[in-house]
Amino acid sequence: MRKAGMILLAGSLGIGIAQAQTTVPVSERSSFTPSSDATASTTSSSTSTRANAAKKRTAIPLPDGHDPLLDLPALPKGSVTLLGGTVKSIDQVRDHLTVEPFGGKSQKLVFDERTHFYRDGKETTQSAIRKGDRVYIDTMLDGTQIFARNVRVMTQLAPADARGRVMNFDLGSGELILQDELSSQPVKLMVNSATRVTDNNRAVSISDLKSDSLVTVKFAPQRHNEVAQEVNILAAPGASFAFLGKITYLDLSKQILGVENESDKKIYDIKFTPTQLANRESLHEGANASIQAIFNGDGYTARSIQILPNPTR
Q: What is the pTM of this model?
């Protein structure tokens, strides 16, 4: 009887324990596991951190609307210089090419997506440029590198233009020696009765062609002693010129300035003396100027400089 009572007591205790275990609320049991609120807080914090980092990486457009991440960089500022020569090598991976100017030393140029390539007048890509190609390149200084803005490949023997100073002209033999702007070596051409000579596109006599004149010559490239088809005298020594436009650069130490002439959109280097200005402070890059100059064979020298008020917008 005592044994049966002990069994009954043990059974009652077991039932009580079971009932005690089953009556623990679910909310209280979950308090013993890692907090879901803490996990959510950590996840939210991580997401917020990544979002803030993404915002920091997102480029803020500049005032002019340029996006430094998506848009190409602006072209370098400054004047454009024409370079003519032969392609010595081209690296399609590092985006640079080496050009050997006509009669000069090799120069290394860089290019990118902003560069335009043309082959015989038709736009193409950099893959069409080959070693040995004869090219004419519009170059600009970009920091310490020379940037190729436009690369033109000429493969046809169509008439081409040369520009430079007449070093000597022998009227008797018709031999014209030209210091081409694209070459460090003089170019020899022949002028005969079939050559058309003009002075700023006005027909003149061959005898008007003088040494130290600035001329353009049309002839067939890659031929020796080619007869000039046309010679146009741009400036003869002693001729006067008027320039009107914006000053693109200024070097007071060398007393030279550059002006972008409005009539032909070309930039001219003009020598000057500071005493020609009543107010030197008015002479600065970006100022509009009216300049009277004389051509002396080596270049243009200012006779008078007048600073004009900037046009109102």
A: 0.47
pLDDT digits (tens, 9 = 90+) for 217-255: 987 654 445 788 899 999 999 999 999 999 998 888 889
Residue at which a domain ends, from 153, 185, 207: 153
| CB environment 120-147: b (16+ within 10 A), e (fewer) | eeeeeebeebeeebbbbbbbbebeeebb
Task: Quick: pLDDT tens for 28-66.
Answer: 444 444 444 544 444 444 445 444 544 444 445 555 455
How far apart, in whole angstroms, are the C-alpha atoms of residue 235 and residue 13? Answer: 122
Q: Does residue 180 sit within a domain?
A: yes
- Asked whether residue 9 is domain-assigned, the answer is no
* Domain extent for 145: 81-153
**What dihedral do alpha carbons 140, 244, 246, 298 form, nearest 10°?**
40
Nearest to 131 by CA among 166, 112, 157, 106: 106
Number of domains in the chain: 3
Please report whether residue 1 resides in a domain: no
The answer to whether residues 212 and 256 belong to one domain is no
